[in-house]
From TrEMBL:
<comment type="function">
    <text>Photoreceptor synaptic protein essential for normal vision. Involved in synapse formation in cone photoreceptor cells.</text>
</comment>
<dbReference type="Pfam" id="PF07679">
    <property type="entry name" value="I-set"/>
</dbReference>
<dbReference type="GO" id="GO:0007601">
    <property type="term" value="P:visual perception"/>
</dbReference>
<dbReference type="InterPro" id="IPR032675">
    <property type="entry name" value="LRR_dom_sf"/>
</dbReference>
<dbReference type="InterPro" id="IPR036116">
    <property type="entry name" value="FN3_sf"/>
</dbReference>
<keyword id="KW-0812">Transmembrane</keyword>
<keyword id="KW-0732">Signal</keyword>
<keyword id="KW-0325">Glycoprotein</keyword>
<keyword id="KW-0393">Immunoglobulin domain</keyword>
<keyword id="KW-0256">Endoplasmic reticulum</keyword>
<feature type="domain" description="Ig-like">
    <location>
        <begin position="256"/>
        <end position="348"/>
    </location>
</feature>
<keyword id="KW-0472">Membrane</keyword>
<keyword id="KW-0677">Repeat</keyword>
<keyword id="KW-0844">Vision</keyword>
<dbReference type="InterPro" id="IPR000483">
    <property type="entry name" value="Cys-rich_flank_reg_C"/>
</dbReference>
<dbReference type="InterPro" id="IPR013098">
    <property type="entry name" value="Ig_I-set"/>
</dbReference>
<dbReference type="Pfam" id="PF13855">
    <property type="entry name" value="LRR_8"/>
</dbReference>
């Protein structure tokens, strides 16, 4: 009995070894053999039971092609394919796969095709491609992929057919685009003419700067690349939805740069301070403010974009107190990075915030360049539209020469970063003065005009002007109802700033203009030069002509006086008997031309036209007729 049992067990072990060596099909699957070009046979396994929920693990080891299609499988065990060292084709389309393990494809070093289309994959283990060095075709069509990591570029260099269409991709990493652009690979299909085939269509592409490299890659594609569908479309933003890549112009992404030239602001207690911070970058960075000491901000933030595309953030601090002193940090951030800038705010209790070391007139000698210069030119007059909280109105003390006081903070190179305004009770409710302009000027005077459609007949305007850069502004009060004034006593070749506002109110920056008398002087000198040149040319041309004409007239006059003409020439007349183009009747006395010399008649008269001569029959013996 013992011997029989031992023999039976040995037979079972041998039979199991044979079954594993040759292999048998798992349940719910079917197996078939197909012939190879060398005359050998390869096994194909097909599993397509719709009720299959688990992946079999006992596939025959000699399987060359495995197809698991249209099942309910949601995951693949890590060891499912480890024994399939001869597997060349793994097709798993239209299942319910939601994820794949990093060891799922380990050991498949002879795999040529991997088809995973029609599943629910939200990611793919790109690093597993290193375990499949022979892989040439990867089909991820119609999945739920939302992004591709930049490291994927390291593993797709051998892939010559990659289908990523019908996913949820919004952009592709730049490293992957560069890999495709420089790729020189052998085509997977023999008749592909050495082209790498890519499928990128039907994805919700976001046409912003992150897609710049991809759009450029498609519009100027390499001859080694072919697309399943080359006409890709934008999905977002809404303004570009449905637009082809070939029709969009995108900007390259740029890290944010903060522009603040005012590093220190000094103002008096109770003023309203506006701190400005600008930034450039692609996409437009987000600006935010915070205090260096972590204290909460006592103000409001306003965002705006200038005409040159620069984004500005304005931090308004109303009625500042000593607690508002300190360092303020402006931060610009986009997905490429973040930068910060610092502005120091100093609060004093003195009406004058001048530095004792500053000069008497407080002339502004700062210089701006680049982006700072652009901002400076845009709001040059802003630095003059400031006051202190202790100044009741501008109307007080008219004619005394009182002017605006400029804090030290405004003496930095960019006045756009600081606007200090008076208490809100002194603000102009509506902009009454508009369109201030220069309508006439000389090198020592200027005439201004403005529009005031909302002004009343009793409204009095104040005109404030000063040499540009000086602190003190002189004032001229305009009579009610007038919207024009002339300013005299200006210095030639000097730049001035002038503001027009309702008397008693603070002018706004749009109510101020800057003009220069050097332009007037230059224009006057140019006009004088033009006048001299024109007069000189006229003299050169006109004087000789005048002399010639006078000499001719004098010559003819003298000839008449000293030369006696023949009587018959002096008494020569032309008698017009008839001008009708008919023949003359016989017996008519008189001639067409009488008492003339032949030479004079030939000079003065022209022959009748040939048409008239043909229309009028000649009378025999009649001389030629002439018309005057």
């Amino acid at each position: 009995v013992a011997m029989w049992i031992a023999v039976s067990l040995l037979c079972c072990l041998m039979l199991g070894g044979l079954r594993r060596a040759g292999g048998s099909c798992p349940s719910q699957c079917s197996c078939a053999f197909h012939s190879l070009s060398e005359g050998t046979k390869a096994r194909t396994v097909l599993c397509n039971d719709p009720e299959m929920t688990l992946t079999p693990v006992n596939f025959p080891v000699d399987t060359s092609k495995l197809r698991i299609e249209k099942t309910a499988i949601r995951r693949v065990p890590g060891e499912a394919f480890h024994a399939l060292h001869n597997l060349e084709y793994l097709w798993m389309p239209y299942n319910s796969l939601a994820s794949l393990s990093g060891i799922t494809f380990k050991g498949l070093r002879r795999l040529l095709e991997l088809r995973l289309d029609g599943n629910d994959l939200i990611s793919f283990p790109w690093e597993t491609l290193a375990d499949m060095p022979q892989l040439r075709l990867l089909d991820l069509h119609n999945n739920e992929l939302t992004s591709i990591p930049p490291d994927a570029a390291r593993y797709v260099k051998n892939i010559t057919y990659l289908d990523l269409s019908s996913n949820k991709l919004m952009t592709l990493p730049q490293a992957l685009i560069s890999t495709w652009a420089n790729l020189q690979a052998v085509p997977y299909f023999p008749n592909d003419n050495s082209k790498i085939i890519l499928g990128l269509q039907d994805n919700p592409w976001a046409c912003d700067c992150s897609l710049y490299e991809m759009v450029h890659f498609l519009n100027f594609q390499s001859p080694n690349i072919a697309f399943i569908e080359p006409r890709l479309k934008c999905f977002t933003p809404r303004s570009l939805a449905g637009v082809f890549f070939s029709q969009v112009e995108l900007r390259k992404c740029q890290s944010p740069v903060v522009h603040t030239s005012v590093a220190k602001v000094k103002t008096i207690l109770g003023s309203t301070v506006l701190l400005r911070c600008g930034t450039t970058g692609v996409p437009i960075p987000e600006l935010s403010w915070r205090r260096a000491d972590g204290a909460p901000l006592n103000g409001t933030v306003h965002q705006e974009i200038s005409s040159d595309g620069m984004s500005w953030s304005i931090l308004g601090l109303p009625v500042v107190s000593y607690l508002d002193s300190g360092e303020y940090i402006c931060k610009a951030k986009n997905f490429l990075g973040a930068t910060e800038a610092f502005i120091s705010l100093i609060i004093t209790d003195s009406e004058s915030t001048d530095d004792p070391n500053s000069n008497a007139k407080g002339t502004w000698s700062g210089k701006a360049s680049g982006m700072e210069a652009a901002a400076y030119n845009d709001k040059l007059v802003a630095r003059y539209v400031i006051t202190t909280s202790t100044m009741p109105t501008l109307g007080a003390g008219a004619g005394t020469g009182e002017g605006f006081l400029i804090p030290d903070g405004a003496q930095d190179s960019n006045p756009q970063n600081l606007l200090v305004s008076p208490p809100t009770g002194q603000q102009e409710p509506e902009r009454i003065v508009r369109s201030v302009r220069v309508i006439g000027d000389t090198d020592q005077s200027v005439t201004l005009a403005w529009k005031a459609p909302l002004a009343r007949n009793t409204t009095v305007f104040s005109v404030l002007y000063a040499v540009f850069g000086e602190r003190d502004m002189r004032r001229i009060n305009v009579e009610p109802g007038k919207t024009k004034v002339s300013i005299y006593g200006l210095l030639p070749k000097t730049k001035y700033i002038v503001c027009v506002c309702v008397k008693g109110l603070i002018p706004r920056k749009e109510q101020c203009i800057i003009f220069s008398t050097d332009e007037v002087a230059s224009a006057g000198g140019t006009q004088k030069l033009i006048n001299v040149v024109v007069i000189s040319v006229a003299c050169v041309i006109a004087v000789p002509l005048t002399l010639v004409v006078c000499c001719g007239a004098l010559k003819r006059r003298c000839k008449k006086c000293f030369v006696r003409k023949p009587k018959e020439i002096q008494e020569s007349y032309v008698t017009f008997e008839s001008l009708s183009p008919g023949a003359k009747a016989k017996g008519v006395e008189g001639e067409y031309l009488t008492r003339h010399t032949p030479d004079e008649s030939n000079r003065l008269l022209s022959a009748r036209s040939s048409v008239d001569s043909e229309a009028i029959p000649k009378i025999e013996g009649q001389p030629n007729e002439y018309f005057c």
